Backbone:
């Protein structure tokens, strides 16, 4: 059997072609594509993995690992969103979900079936994910003390622009936010022009006044000193990549190009949320505000379909089992991404 | 680059694209003024707890749809 711990993507690019690994390929757990993408961990120019800190595989409960995720249309899914300083639970009816996002259940079912074909199991998935995120080219980890860095940047912005000390939504300049969103998209477009990055999709948006009002109401109810200057998402952008290889390259370029403008990075791929959501988030300083950039892959975006804005009945207590169910769909999609980037299918 | 104004009804799942403006056809100030006007008009009509108005910019309408699955099958404009 293939010792999966010996699989290390070649340094320089995740899954980049390298010497053929010598292994008993006939008895591996996966259907291996031609083994052209690996080196053994003993190869001199491999990065050093971090075996000492190998985390224990995250076991999923039987209900999550064995069931088909998209169940009967009446199945309720529960989701938990953690916003750092607050969290919220949602219940979502799967039938309702299908109605809202035509095809979403098919896409999740397809991921489920594909993962099954490749002998998905949670432990293997975790090992493969570790192989990917342990590679030196991976944009590993979150910035230490993200909240502290955002708070400090917010203070800078409010000092430079006192109107940001306001809690009054009338002081929100939507037109200006619109301009900032356009500038952000232009900058991202120049970093990743479509002729060189044909598979990259991107969009930005400015928070509309009513959304801002709701957000401010919510945040001020939690912290009475919360101001416009504390917001990190009056402007937001999404950048979806073909696969994890592409994501790795794009995040490196993005970090290089934003340089000192980067306030923080949150790596929700190495450390996915409880609902399985996976992306790299950046908070960047646009000079007059902070903005959030989310980078993920097209496949992982499909998992996000099931967790995004599917508010149905907020404030209903959720069961851990249902939370894990939706997370398991995302886990399977991540497993497929790892198989692809490691050249294992 | 295009500006897009869209809305999403979180109860029905219905999404609609209301406005698409191409930067090749309109200068920035005029585009933004139109976006602001349409967003304000929509927000004046909707139940804000149920419907979200989104103001986006993207290279293409397909990019806008693909990066926000809520609008993958949106009708309009």
Residues:
């Amino acid at each position: 059997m293939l010792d999966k711990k010996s699989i290390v993507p070649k340094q320089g690019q995740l899954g980049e072609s390298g010497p053929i690994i010598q292994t008993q390929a006939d008895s591996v757990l996966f259907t291996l594509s031609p083994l052209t993408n690996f080196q053994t961990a003993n190869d001199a120019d491999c990065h050093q993995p971090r075996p000492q800190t190998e985390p224990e595989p995250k076991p999923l409960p039987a209900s999550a690992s064995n069931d088909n995720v998209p169940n009967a249309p009446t199945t309720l899914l529960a989701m938990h969103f953690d916003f750092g300083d607050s969290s919220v639970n949602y219940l979502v009816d799967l039938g309702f979900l299908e109605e809202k996002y035509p095809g979403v259940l098919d896409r999740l079912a397809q991921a489920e079936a594909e993962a099954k074909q490749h002998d998905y199991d949670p432990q293997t998935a975790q090992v493969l994910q570790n192989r990917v995120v342990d590679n030196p080219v991976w944009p590993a980890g979150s910035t230490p003390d993200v909240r502290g860095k955002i708070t400090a940047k917010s203070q800078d912005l409010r000092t430079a622009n006192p109107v940001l000390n306001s809690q009054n939504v009338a002081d929100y300049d939507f037109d200006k936010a619109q301009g900032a969103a356009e500038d952000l998209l232009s900058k991202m477009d120049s970093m990743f022009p479509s002729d060189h990055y044909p598979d990259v999709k991107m969009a930005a948006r400015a928070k509309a006044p009513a959304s801002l009002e709701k957000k401010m109401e919510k945040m001020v109810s939690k912290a009475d000193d919360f101001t416009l200057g504390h917001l990190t998402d009056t402007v937001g952008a999404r950048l979806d990549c073909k696969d994890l290889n592409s994501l790795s390259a794009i995040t490196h370029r993005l970090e290089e190009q934003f340089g000192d403008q980067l306030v923080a990075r949150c790596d929700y791929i190495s450390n996915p949320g409880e609902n399985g959501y996976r992306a790299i988030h950046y908070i960047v300083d646009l000079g007059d505000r902070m903005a959030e950039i989310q980078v993920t892959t097209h496949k992982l975006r499909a998992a996000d379909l099931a967790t995004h804005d599917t508010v149905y009945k907020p404030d209903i207590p959720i069961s851990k089992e249902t939370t894990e169910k939706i997370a398991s769909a995302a886990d399977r999609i991540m497993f497929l991404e790892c198989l692809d980037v490691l050249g294992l299918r | 680059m295009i500006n897009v104004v869209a809305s999403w009804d979180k109860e029905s799942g219905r999404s609609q694209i209301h406005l698409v403006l191409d930067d090749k056809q309109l200068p920035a100030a005029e585009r933004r003024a139109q976006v602001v006007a349409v967003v304000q008009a929509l927000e004046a009509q909707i139940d804000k707890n149920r419907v979200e108005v989104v103001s986006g910019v993207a290279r293409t309408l397909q990019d806008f749809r693909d990066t926000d699955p809520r609008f993958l099958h949106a009708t309009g404009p």
User: Anything to note?
Assistant: Strands of chain A lie at 8-9, 38-39, 76-82, 87-93, 201-206, 235-241, 262-267, 280-285, 290-297. The interface with chain B takes residues 96, 99-104, 174-175, 178-179, 181-182, 185-186, 189, 194, 201-206, 208-211, 213-214, 238-240, 298, 301-302, 304-305, 308-311 of chain A (CB under 8 Å).
